[in-house]
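Obj.: predict assembly geometry.
Materials: sequence records (below).
Method: joint structure prediction, all chains together.
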Amino acid sequence: MLKAIKTAVIGGSGYTGLELVKLLIKHKYANLSLLTSNTYSGMALQDAFAYFKNLNCAGIAFKATDSITYNDFAATDLVFLCLPPHQSMEFAANHLKDYRGKVIDIGSDFRIKDPESYREWYGKDHIATGMLKDFIYGLPEINGEQIKHAKYIANPGCYPTSVLLCLAPLAGLLSKNEPVGKEPFSDKILPCCGGPDIKGQLQIADINIDSKSGVSGAGRKLKDEYLFCSANENFYAYGPLLHRHIGEMEQEIEELCGSKFAISFTPHLLPVERGIFTSVYCKLRFGASYNEKSCCCDSNSKTGSKDAAVKEIVESLFSWYYKNCLFVKFIGQKIPQIKDVLNTNFCHIGYAYDNRTDTLKLFSAIDNLLKGAAGQAIQNMNIMFGFKQEEGLNE
Amino acid sequence: MLKAIKTAVIGGSGYTGLELVKLLIKHKYANLSLLTSNTYSGMALQDAFAYFKNLNCAGIAFKATDSITYNDFAATDLVFLCLPPHQSMEFAANHLKDYRGKVIDIGSDFRIKDPESYREWYGKDHIATGMLKDFIYGLPEINGEQIKHAKYIANPGCYPTSVLLCLAPLAGLLSKNEPVGKEPFSDKILPCCGGPDIKGQLQIADINIDSKSGVSGAGRKLKDEYLFCSANENFYAYGPLLHRHIGEMEQEIEELCGSKFAISFTPHLLPVERGIFTSVYCKLRFGASYNEKSCCCDSNSKTGSKDAAVKEIVESLFSWYYKNCLFVKFIGQKIPQIKDVLNTNFCHIGYAYDNRTDTLKLFSAIDNLLKGAAGQAIQNMNIMFGFKQEEGLNE
Amino acid sequence: MLKAIKTAVIGGSGYTGLELVKLLIKHKYANLSLLTSNTYSGMALQDAFAYFKNLNCAGIAFKATDSITYNDFAATDLVFLCLPPHQSMEFAANHLKDYRGKVIDIGSDFRIKDPESYREWYGKDHIATGMLKDFIYGLPEINGEQIKHAKYIANPGCYPTSVLLCLAPLAGLLSKNEPVGKEPFSDKILPCCGGPDIKGQLQIADINIDSKSGVSGAGRKLKDEYLFCSANENFYAYGPLLHRHIGEMEQEIEELCGSKFAISFTPHLLPVERGIFTSVYCKLRFGASYNEKSCCCDSNSKTGSKDAAVKEIVESLFSWYYKNCLFVKFIGQKIPQIKDVLNTNFCHIGYAYDNRTDTLKLFSAIDNLLKGAAGQAIQNMNIMFGFKQEEGLNE
Amino acid sequence: MLKAIKTAVIGGSGYTGLELVKLLIKHKYANLSLLTSNTYSGMALQDAFAYFKNLNCAGIAFKATDSITYNDFAATDLVFLCLPPHQSMEFAANHLKDYRGKVIDIGSDFRIKDPESYREWYGKDHIATGMLKDFIYGLPEINGEQIKHAKYIANPGCYPTSVLLCLAPLAGLLSKNEPVGKEPFSDKILPCCGGPDIKGQLQIADINIDSKSGVSGAGRKLKDEYLFCSANENFYAYGPLLHRHIGEMEQEIEELCGSKFAISFTPHLLPVERGIFTSVYCKLRFGASYNEKSCCCDSNSKTGSKDAAVKEIVESLFSWYYKNCLFVKFIGQKIPQIKDVLNTNFCHIGYAYDNRTDTLKLFSAIDNLLKGAAGQAIQNMNIMFGFKQEEGLNE
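Observations (raw structure tokens):
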């Protein structure tokens, strides 16, 4: 029998914080020992948010985040930080020096490993640079092994989660150089087209990402653009040039493929409460030695051998990459929908290949508050503490 | 004083048809003489759709589309066809031979001029090929002069309207060849950077379009995916490979720039009733002779001279192209919103240039039922009959 | 040819203020000479709200409401006040003493005529009591004649508009006393059942109102409950006891029927942007002399003669009351829908009579920002200045 | 250790059926042995509805409902019927004669116990009248004891659930007669005001119910009114006279209070996917012996002793009635919200008392697909088979 751990949630009254609290209250092996919020300080959770009357949490109340001292959480096994930009690192710098438990930062302060890069994307000096190297980027489908042994986790951003899960299986194709036929195009992964004509003859030359997020992605902010009358029956792009998540994505893409790869990324605001739908457009480039005629995949294909080759490669790579991943469902040439993953920790991924323009279109759908934030944090917690990965997430 | 014309609306109970009828009833110089619908045959317009109780249209009732004969509309000056694919050409073949009035087809049968291409995109032989050459593509900001003298108008599709209005001013940059510095980069248009370093040194190498349409774009179809419980709080791409509007867009792009240009196009279903937001991603290529340092635009720029050069070119071209166009508002580096054009015939266009990936991002917003359909049809009617372009559209 | 009037809009950046500005800009006989807002002070209207790029209003900018002096609007013919509770009377007390033009207050300060009652419902002393008697309650379908000659108009609240239009035709039935057969049951209005058995034998004993309003009804307030993520996919009652509009409604009901009548009123928040749907439940009481058998209405009725009698009375009274009213459509036993009146100045009213519980159910639908606020203000302006009632409102 | 039961779901592709299947798949002690649907016959559940890829149900596929034979489900312990009106009784008449397991009918055929009444409300003769007496009305908070021992359950309608949970605690007040002071006003329940002045001096004289349901309440019907473009940004009443749920509600109210009580009920269509908000307006009548002055409750009240008396009675009765009911939360003078119960099996109930009109306003919120349908069915199953009441429902 597993023993329950004690957890603290610092900044628990935002959308992500509350989602996390819901998951923790229902989790068999986690207890919530401390919950903080400056706004709701002193209020019982059930009184502040009536939904919690449905859960067994009568004794839980908010303490003020600003008045927390080390003693308030010293006895916990895990601290979740759900704080706005710059506040996680302040909290860490002030309070976590002596803490012997583990930390999962759902905020954005510890995702970028390079302080220079942090300053560039977040417009401020990092004040806890000494801790940066200890944080593992907590995308379990990519870094599962490291997460197991991590003390500190930087929980990924919602957009990066939806993007990186599309790109990770294709890392071998990502290079600005001409295609050169390196792994993971092993014969095992590509049984059919493992011949010289395809293997190493396909590259992703360019990545253009168009992401659409529900309004909760912006957090609980009292701004005109997030009012019902502003967001409802509306849609638009925002931050079209230097969204902060780009730095995080490019860092992780470099981790995946070994070289720098600049991406174009454009977020949009969807008039839904939660959910992200991401369209990743990859411009393909076929190598000089690629020869359609000799490809074995295409014997029965009507649509031309490029179609068959891309199908073979994409489907083999995704099946291989996610074969042991419970929470990522590759659905082939179907298209995912936000509704199919709503209120779940799942990511659905589908694709289409447009041979007229050599564009590989990857589509992913997640719930931004779960797989994009609190659900992923619980998944990380489960892995860190040896619980089943899906513990408390199998709704 | 202008004399009112008599109009007929064939297929007037769909979303577009009803929007057109609303506009016609309020139009000072147009009367509605005939309205047809198989579904609502025999019903008064006000009884079928209670909204029309608000308008002065007590005498208007639906006749069955299938039972219309030439005599029913012979005396009209203008016939609007609002019929599903393949039915416009049937109606035209059967009924319009002797008609001396003008025709605006809001359906899709006469947009593609080449019967081969029609078969390819619409999966059926065209049965009124003899009439194809007489149809003018009715995008007034591009073909205004031809529309003035047209007898037959093929009203553009909603997606193509939102896309072509983004690309038309940039036609001179569209070429698969290396940049060669041709018009419209005249000195008048580009006063500052009209020098050899920019002029002719910039091309659009690739176009990737991500469009999002409200549910009314699909028409009034009793399908599971258009039910409230399916579309609400949902979002997804659909038809990711061969959407029929691609043929129409590539045809018109070729008209604009003089050469074939294949585009990647992906439509998505937005959980709003009406409105299209289109993101056009243009990959830029700078010519070999382009020299940042000698560009005069950049003296005060902090972000690098490519930014200044693109700004100069884009803003000059859009201002020039739309300077006399009432219904297209170029808003520079701001981003348009669906809400700003809802229930209007306007198109708002903004842009951003990402110098990290040489991507020019163009964003447009229209109301799919107005500028994307019925409003544009009225605009065309106004032009064809010598009324003010905005007559009846100035809500 | 009518001459255009000069108008000022004080407090023009809220939902109602902007709706009013839209209508004024398009109005043939009204010019907007002054527009104020503290929040957007100094900004051009088009820059603050991109929708206005669609309208011909390039020169219009906001001045700060707080810095307005008499000279800023002394030359205007009409001042619209669109200010929060208590601010209209402050503006009036400070600025309107010498003003020779007319005033339409879209706020709530001058609707309640009795200062005691004002204090009771609004929790504050009225500071311009001397002006109260000069304000006419601006519901044109009820007070049209007085509005023609009014200098000051108190524009009705949105809920009261939706309620009073349901009750006005039935004023003769409203009494706490036993039915006594007074007007308007003249033979002309009730030709069939004008006999002694029905006439004067029917009363409304009790009124229970359940109203549902779109979110814009709350105004542009940066509060958590009006955020998209709070209001979307949600619904609830609010202010269930002493909503301020009750005082206004009971005052006007007393005006209509000559005696005090306490009503139960419960407002609810609808997850739509605009629109009010009101269900008015009237408990009917039949007088002791009422005799079903001798009622002439019922010869062909299957559902019992009470049904026939109520139908006769309700339909006669509504048809009679609204026969010259363009903007109120009585649709009989059909049920109105918000969508049918959206973006219009119309009110649709339908009814059903439940003979099992003697409940007359009246249903009304309006657009809260138009017939419930800015549209009605323009309708009042038109009447006050001798324009056609529907001038500028015939969308 | 409890043993898992085998269940069958007949008609499992509607909104309620799918919600039930979701709950069953995650239920620790229930297996899904048979799933039927005519529309999706032959398809795997995961292929028909991609959401189910998230759940461990790879082997589940739909059989055609029309081709089911007794042998298909003879070995199950429980059959759920999720069929449209009239089809449950056909299925029961044809297939359930020999079935030794239990049955929960989520449809409406077995809720009304009297065949005459069934014909009146459902317009058709009941064809399985012999089985009617064996069905227990499955509202666990009211009939929990009977449900434990039931073989057949008629699962309540969604509206009746939201209404009856408001009225059940007040059953002692429900009578058309003058107040007579009967139970449940025992001293234990009303400790303070158990004196002669209140006890038995308060009655509910009239009940008027205004209910609002999300679109899923109508089921998955391909009708124009349930299209996104029809329901979105819209709201209206429907079926304002003889909604079928009235018969069911009046039957159960009679069960509760021992005498017939006619109610006025008006359903409305909310533009949300799921959720019901019900406003129950009870007109109170105080008995002749009621004496405000001698009521002990009121010593500190500012708002008058009727307020205090009603507060005392309502709060005591609700607290007493639901003290052991996990899924009903009485929240006093707060107002419930749909969002607080969404995706849960909970019902939240609040109240307000308007002493100006003697109106007690009760407000309830449920998720129509859970507490209003599938969740309640699982709750019934749990009770019938001796599982914990909340097993599989504790999201």
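Conclusions so far: Chain C touches chain D at residues 206, 208, 210, 212, 230, 233-238, 240-241, 262-264, 266, 268, 270-273, 275, 277, 279, 281, 283, 335-339, 342, 352-354, 356-357, 359, 361, 363, 365 (CB under 8 Å).
To do: check interface contacts against the pulldown list.
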